[in-house]
């Protein structure tokens, strides 16, 4: 959800752009930046504490190299498969005439609501499938394909139909159309999407740990838990952080290059669709196949496990776990908005600090949950009064999902028409009054959607929650993970069903094609 | 009641010079129109007066009081100007009443709730929309939105009202009505006003003074009549109405000779070459050459507009080729047909422009 600040500034300001941030904003922005930088600072401090010998042993031993290789290869392959698969599905849904196409469009998006560890849980609950690398490859591909579909849809939506029609009148056949008009315009968006999949796999902990694949996240967790060797874990976490940072920077470049201006306002709303019988059968097979495997199968497994349980439903615990999940996620969402508003405003000023804020948000966007967990453990050990409290967990959520709220907030603020801001100033209101009486009320819906997104992402967060939760405190995600880890599938089922239902809300919001947050293919 | 005085104002956006040493004075209570093509810097001028753009040099004075000079710029919220942008720009989250009262509640304008409500009523009465006080902006028509925006701008008792083509978004029929009404209100309240427009009729009809703007500077200003009748150049003449240019020569004694102004001695080598600017309505067409002083011409085209018509005429060539066709505006029904021979005379002031000016 990070957008190019240049574009937003173009939207929000007139050419004279002399709009330096106020002192209050500067102060709030610097505080927010310090807030998001502190955990990373403590993570580095923790890593530096490890002595040279252990460090070199850790970095240069074969096992570490193997873990890094597994991480990168798994991420690359998942991203490759998900991209090919996702583009195929999106192209089919967009270009082939099939019945109930709106329903299918919504259905292929719902898997976004299913966290990777629930897929892994379903995989294991079949009790016939093996664990291991290839299982993780399949599970993660199923879980990430909808993100590519989403990105491709948004790229398709930006292609001007008039361009296609002009190209047709100039004698291009369908293949030439795809190669010369469509592909160049969707390329960067799709590539940016595949890099986000790489990031997803880098930071995935639930699926790989349940399926027993040694990627960096699992290695960090094992090092931390097994030996309580926090410094070694921190070194691995920094390696993962650096890998993720490289990916997010590249992703950002591609996405910023992906913006295409429409040449004209096309009157035609929808292009011609392929309607030959054979093509349609093929298309339906592909779409229905994906929906069966990625949605119907796991959901029916969950339902089946739910009804096959041996013990009474522990309603008291379900209520307890759900309410504590909601409580801590809401806390995280409120905190995220409080940090996000000054940062969003700073990025919109285009000042130097704004640029720093933009990069800060970008980097924390790449932070894997486990790295954040470890960083806050390091932070919390210096400040014992906050360690093992809900507050620390809320802080983790607020930073982990900060980029999403900053994106929403800066977009909604930049959409407040500049002339309203100017009129307010000619009517005697200073910057602060204008912000509170004009900008904030108009941007409120966007700010609330940002908060909702943080809230729902926090509900399904697993690795940081595992590390930071107070003793005896469980969320839906940790309940599912603990039960599945010891093969108590039926006990996890009610929690998994609840979590999917909660997560389906943003998936539904995102999949609605008219929603503005799907305009540029952001993955949330 | 505030006069506006702008001297040598320059505004640059990066390396582009948008306003270039612009000077203009508007007397207290006058309604001034800035007329110019799009891109000439009109809107920037208004925004600089409002304090929304920081000038690079020059001074802006309200009643001799400096509000903007080089490094010293009064921020927009302290200038007390009423600003009507192209779109009405009503706050969508407030009702009509709240919009009108928006500027009334703070700082040095702190007033009681009852006073504020009274002022809102008063303003809405002024624009004739009292019954819409609780509506939201999206429930209003375009004309109503413009009038609410005016009420909002006037509610703060502004020193100066700035209008940036406020009627351009309205339908033609509505535009004439609303603009007449708004301008009448402003004149009645004797508020110094500055409106930018590219609609020459709107400027001619409404303004006390017109300033013509081109390439970031004011090229001529004066009453509508003086601007229309006494343009300094062909370009200026063109911006207030149709114009015909014919080659002419000015003798040392000051008399001017052209095809339409024959003198006993025809063109000779002494004298300066230039052009005459003629408004089409100053050309009179006759069927016969009564006293032998009219010029013979052939009708080459007739454009019929309903209330009047434009007759394009070709003349026997005398001097160098003309830059514009000769046009005559005739009222009412047109009985001329293409190819017909007619006799014409110029009945109006001699507007001589020398070669140097016409070449610009």
Total strand count of chain A, please?
A: 0
The largest interface is:
A-B, 21 and 31 residues
Order of helices and strands of chain B: EEEHEEEEHHHEHEHEEHHEEEEEEEEEH
- What is the global morphology of chain B? elongated
The strand count of chain B comes to 20
Largest sheet of chain B: 6 strands, mixed
Largest sheet of chain A: none
> Which structural category do the helix and sheet elements of chain A fall into?
mainly alpha
Order of helices and strands of chain A: HHHHHHHHHHHHHHHHHHHHHHH
Rg over CA atoms of chain A: 24 Å
The total count of helices of chain B amounts to 9
Gap between N and C termini of chain A, in Å?
7 Å
Helical coverage of chain B, percent range: 10-25%
Detail the poorly predicted runs of chain B: none
Beta-strand content estimate of chain A: under 5%
> For the CA atoms, what is the radius of gyration of chain B?
25 Å
